[in-house]
Design a protein that fits this description.
Strand order of the largest sheet: 16-15-14-13-7-12-11-8-17
Oligomer: single chain
Helix content: 25-40%
CATH topology of the largest domain: Dihydrodipicolinate Reductase, domain 2
Number of helices: 11
Largest sheet: 9 strands, mixed
Radius of gyration: 21 Å
Number of strands: 17
Order of helices and strands: EHEHEHEHEHEHEHHEEEEEEEEEHHEH
Strand content: 25-35%
Low-confidence stretches: none
CATH architecture of the largest domain: 2-Layer Sandwich
Structural class: alpha/beta
CATH class of the largest domain: Alpha Beta
Mean pLDDT: 96
Shape: globular
Length: 384
């Protein structure tokens, strides 16, 4: 089995998720490639005890990402740092010849994203992808197969979204995701939006224009030191887009939502597709349930399919059991390593977000900001 030696730059929540997925790689019996974490870049190296305890292959712990990128043992990096550092560190990783898995939004704004993509184009030998794990849920993989087979028929309407309630508490202390100079003007769209874009973009559907309604609900927050500071990022975003399927020329509406203040939602990703032949609806609120309506004339009846472990990359877990977030993270990493090793993925919806798909999200979010400012529908071409 091929081993790809990784460094992690930004060893927080999602760094630990990646490390945990790597630790149980035996869960994926058909993989011909595996990750091994050998280096770590953390702001406070003394706080790396959990990594040192559980991953003895780590031989470098540093607070300088340049030192990690100079390490000849490191073949690939996972970078999970604040958005204002994306362009600097992603480009440095690519130029150092390290395969890159980066966190969304791949640049704090359109200009930063364009700089990253230009760097990647100059180094085609470096494999570059973006994180987005939710479409690896079995129900979403099933939806992808329905799209690929043409079973949906003509698309009538699409809704996707990612909803949190994490900022409902107005007394929650501010962090970098609520600071416009660190998170960026996109606000919640930059932080969560790629999750809602992943499936439509992978289906090949392209937004032509957008009317955006962006909400700044909590305008100041505690600073953690006894004072209060402005909170100037968008908390919630609702976008209505005219989409086009280039394969057919068919146009249809797409409603996109990304929200950090969504009462009653813990961490909910959802998709709803209405088609002339088959309609589908799925939400991670009920991860085993896929709602389907197959129309052949006569009565219209929604039915439920109970999904088990029907994963893109086979696991040792029995097919009757439930799939969860940690499984989605591991499937995403399996997709990354499978494509790095084989040069392609086993099916269209079994792949990670590509640089071109990320670039499209930046065009969409930039147009959304322009729409919010003008109160008008904005064509994506006009916002680029």
């Amino acid at each position: 089995m091929r081993t790809v030696r990784f460094g992690i730059i930004g060893a927080g929540l999602m760094g630990r998720e990646f490390a945990s997925a790597a630790a149980r790689w035996c869960h994926l019996p058909e993989m011909q490639v595996r990750p091994e974490i050998v280096a770590l870049c953390k702001r406070n190296p003394a706080a790396a005890g959990w990594y040192r305890e559980h991953f003895p292959a780590i031989r470098q712990v540093t607070d300088d990402y340049r030192a990690l990128l100079a390490n000849p043992e490191v073949e690939a990096v996972y970078v999970a740092v604040p958005h204002n550092l994306h362009a600097e560190i992603y480009c440095a990783a690519i130029e150092a010849g390290k395969h890159l898995m980066g966190e969304k939004p791949f640049g704090i704004d359109l200009a930063a994203n364009q700089a990253i993509l230009a760097c990647a184009r100059r180094h085609p030998e470096v494999f570059v992808r973006c994180c987005s794990q939710m479409p690896f849920f079995p129900a979403v993989q099933r939806i992808g197969r329905l799209i690929d087979s043409g079973a949906i028929g003509t698309v009538i309407e699409v809704e996707t979204g990612f909803l949190h309630s994490s900022d409902l508490d107005a007394n929650k202390a501010i962090n970098w995701k609520r600071m416009i100079e660190v998170n960026g003007e996109y606000g919640v769209m930059g932080d969560l939006g790629m999750h809602a874009c992943h499936l439509p973009f992978r289906a090949g559907w392209r937004p032509r224009n957008v009317r955006a309604l962006l909400s700044d609900i909590v305008k100041e927050r505690p600073d953690g030191r006894g004072g209060r500071v402005p909170c100037r990022t968008w908390d919630n975003a609702t976008l209505l887009c005219e989409m086009e399927d280039p394969a057919t020329g068919q146009r249809f509406p797409w409603t996109f939502k990304s929200q950090r203040i969504a009462p009653g939602e813990k961490n909910t990703w959802y998709v709803r597709i209405l088609g002339t032949r088959t309609s589908v609806s799925f939400s991670t609120r009920d991860p085993k349930r896929l709602d389907m309506l197959e129309y052949t004339g006569g009565e219209q009846i929604w039915g439920q399919v109970q999904m088990g472990m029907e994963t893109a990359y086979p696991s040792v877990t029995g097919g009757i059991f439930e799939f969860g977030f940690s499984d989605a993270v591991q499937q995403m990493w399996a997709a990354y390593l499978y494509e790095l090793h084989h040069g392609s993925v086993p099916s269209r919806f079994a792949g990670c977000v590509t640089p071109d798909e990320v670039a499209l999200s930046h065009r969409l979010f930039t147009a959304a900001l322009a729409s919010q400012r003008s109160g008008q529908t904005v064509r994506l071409e006009d916002a680029s």
